[in-house]
Hints:
By secondary structure, the chain is α/β, with parallel strands linked by helices. It is built from 16 helices and 17 strands. Helix 5 (140-153) runs parallel beside helix 6 (165-175) and helix 10 packs parallel to helix 11 (300-313).
Amino acid sequence: MALTGMQIFKLLPKTNCKECGVPTCLAFAMNLASGKAELDACPYVSDEARAQLEEAAAPPIRQVVIGKGVRTAKTGGETVLYRHEKTFYNPTLFAGVIASDLPVADVEAKLKIWNALQFERVGLNLRPELAAVKDVNGDKDAFAAVAKLVAEKSEFNVILMSEDAEVMAAGIAACGFKNPLIYAATEANADAFGKLAADNNLPLAVKSDSVDGLVALTNKLTAMGLKDLVLDPGSRELKPALQDLVGLRRAALKAGNRALGFPTIAFPCEMASNLDMEALIAGTYVAKYGGIVVLSDLTTEVLFPLLLMRLNIYTDPQRPMVVSEGIYEIGNPDENSPVLVTTNFALTYFIVSGEVEASKVPAWLLIKDSEGLSVLTAWAAGKFSGDDVGLFIKKSGIMDKVKHSEIIIPGYAAAIVADVEEELPGCTVTVGPREAAHLPGFLKAR
């Protein structure tokens, strides 16, 4: 349960040292209570108080870490039901299934394809995170061999899927170094799987046919000292599975039910007969509220739209999607290619760059930082004024790349022409079309 500002204040050293950036410990406590400060900003808080405050400040849904190294994946840690209330923090993780009876050559071929699945969008590298090794015949040696191969030959973090403790132990021995997620503890094997997770310090998925069953299992496992759990309510039909995921999120956030305060895992791969339907179901769980979504395979046509959907949902609504300021080359431009300038709002960039690319006219596209605002909005807010645009062009270095001195600005920013030309003596500023859809015709007619 969250502490009030006064409750937090009682646990602080009350030195008013100002090293946290605010004048008093009371002000710092109020900032902590409202989420505007981090506890680490106070250098003098005692270990005992820190433990109490961190426990009270922990999100209602625990954050669980899967994997190690630079590709470490996180799920959970959420604090709101709806994105617009604040933001969602840890994007849904995507996994593909690899059966334990698959021949080595086939596993290697699949991993080669999966490793290549990465897409650049808004300056970000979008890709799936997990490979789920599924026990299909109870052969512990085969399971361990595939798990070892996936862990060593791919960049994916691993989910080990079996309900046989002996098979699971073999899988852990083969790839435990990669901090895999164990799937899944059930009423029948909770003691054995709980011990495996505790002994190896690994996250553990919990599966039951009902929410009440999950409560009983999570209470049992947390009593064993386990904290990093992932919930599977067992539903394998779209409507009841969605109801369960929403119910789990509500129970954790609204009712404060700590027994259900863990991320979830969903299995579209067990709910559809083809990848197209899997993709539709997976999209539902990206929106509400799958922490991990497991697909039967990872393919470009399924994964790319899901990754874009995830990107949009998990972007902070208070911070617009932006691209980095700079010079972007479209279609191998040369010293005679046109130079266009626009704002760094991601949607603006992708629409403009897409239309320029469609024109087949190589061009230089200058992206000016406008704090994520579109052209008209940025101009109205003074973030795309003539002086600023001119200064940006001058400092960008574009004039060293071209022989001509013409700059094309968006039609909606026509009012800044004189100021840009004043800032850039000798340059010609041309007003382009207002709508990006007209850029191909505009560029071809030049």
